[in-house]
Amino acid sequence: MPRNSFTLTARYWNPSRLLLSVQGRFIGRQFDDDQNQFLLNRLYTMDAEVGRALGNNVEIFAAAENLTAQRYQVARTLILNLGPPILYRFGMHFPAEEKS
C-alpha cells in the first residue's frame, strides 16, 4: 500500500441534460512485493467522462482514462509492467427501473 494516495473528483449531473465528470488520482511510491525490494514510482493520472440520458432507461457516455498519457509502473516483480496509455471508451447504460 502506498503511504500517500489522493483522489479529487468534480462532477456535474443533471439527469435530463448532461453528466460531466473529471477525476485526478495521485498514488505515492509503493513496493510491488512483500519484502520491499521492488519499488514502484509514484504516479498521477486524470480521467474524464461525459454522458447524457436519452430516455427513462437509456444513457450514452464517452470516457477517457489517463489523459496525462503517463506510462506508470504497475508491477516490477521479475518484469517491469507498465499501465496503459490513454484509453477511450464509449457505450450505453440501461439503468434498472426503480421500484416503489
Low-confidence stretches: none
Number of domains: 1
Number of distinct beta strands: 9
The helix content, as a percent range, equals under 10%
User: What is the structural class?
Assistant: mainly beta
Walk me through what this model shows.
This protein is about 0% helix and about 55% strand. With about 100 residues, it is mostly beta strands. It has one domain (about 5-95). It has a five-stranded antiparallel beta sheet, with no helix packed on it. Strands 3-4 form a two-stranded antiparallel ribbon. The N and C termini lie far apart (about 40 Å).
What labels would you give this structure?
100 residues; mainly beta; two-stranded antiparallel sheet; 0% helix
